[in-house]
Amino acid sequence: MKKILFLLAIITLVSCGGDGNQSVDAILESGDLSAIKAKRTELNNQQRELKSDIDKLNAFIDKKEKNERPALVTTQVINDSVFKHYVEVQGNVETDQNVVLNAEYSGILTQVYVKEGQKVSKGQRLAKIDDGGLSSQVAQQEAQLALAKTTFERQQRLWDQKIGSEIQFLQAKTNYEAAQSANKQLKSQLGKTIITAPFSGVVDDVISDPGQVVVPGQTQIIRLVNLSDMYVKASIPENYLQSVKVGTEVNVKLPSINAEFKGKVRQVSNYINPNNRSFDIQVEIPNKDGFVRPNLIATVQVNDYTADSAITIPENILQENAEGETIAFLFERVNDSLGTAKRVVLETAYSYDNHTEVKSGLKEGDILIVEGAKTLRDGQKVIIKK
Questions:
Q1: Any idea which UniProt keywords this protein has (predicted)?
Q2: For the chain, what are the domain ranges?
Q3: Among candidates 67, 73, 63, 64, which has minimal Cα distance to 339?
Q4: Which of 17, 53, 228, 352 is the least crowded, having the fewest Cβ atoms under 10 Å away?
């Protein structure tokens, strides 16, 4: 019924000359509720249509303004600098003065003169093995040597005076020389009963205890280590053979003790390992505090390439176009902060520590776009972020 009345009201308005454009005030004055509701519906529909059109216009304007709005970027001025490239390998801390002293004489270990951790000097006595009467034999041999020497010297004086026979002189000489040789041999054997330090260092481990029977070449007595002459040994791939030599700069990191050292290659092997196609290098490292120990794992960075006047840029701003070319963007200034982005094709070389050396495409003084470069296009307006 309401819909019929609503239609009759509209028909009435039309018949009375209403064309839907009657003012709100006029409709309100008429007091016709159906006409008022009809006008409200009409205006609501118009409002929705206008809002939809306005949203479309706003979206288009925003897109247009965004394309024309300068992109915010940061820049840096290109300057020449020293660029160093390093090849990184793992190494091992070693020392040539890290030895286990074995028994050289068979017998009972009678004395150990040192303790673990004790510092000793080169030639210092470390332990003694029972000589089994060898010292008595040496004393007896020395007496025989003294007699043979006296006999030889007297016979020589007589021979010089043309007294006596030549055979007596030669026999005395032979006996003396034989006694010397026998005495030297016995003393050498006796010397093997005393274990001495072949170099200055620290007693790392006393392996055998007094009273133990020791056997030459089999029984280990003492481990002696010198921590003052430490070096890192590392294997370098053979393709770096021409760029790594004695004196090459090296950085050494010891993660276990949180230590870093700068050094130089002191020795390069002349042998290529056929198993892994590499050659060995040695790098001397300091050990003032004594924390560096043999067999520590080391990270070795070997400087295989250096450019004194190189142009380098951050590696993360480099891009690749559809042709596979490496590109970056330069800032072409319009005023202090406003400019345009210029795409340049680069020829790059080595990369290290998040920086890449550029061989061509950039020159000193160019202004490179850093932040914001990934989303730029050639010729786009840009503004420097303050």
A1: Coiled coil
A2: 2-66, 70-83+308-384, 90-95+226-307, 101-222
A3: 73
A4: 17
Q: Alpha-carbon Rg of the chain, whole angstroms? A: 49
Out of 21-30, 219-228, 310-319, pick the least confident: 21-30
CATH code, residues 101-222: 2.40.50.100
pLDDT at 193 over 90: no
Task: Indicate whether this model's pTM tops 0.85.
Answer: no
196-221 mean pLDDT: 92
Q: Fold for 90-95+226-307, please state it.
A: Elongation Factor Tu (Ef-tu); domain 3 (2.40.30)
For residues 177 and 11, the model is more confident at: 177
> Would you say domain 70-83+308-384 falls under CATH 2.40.420.20?
yes
pLDDT single digits (tens) 95-129:
888 899 999 999 999 999 999 989 999 999 999 99
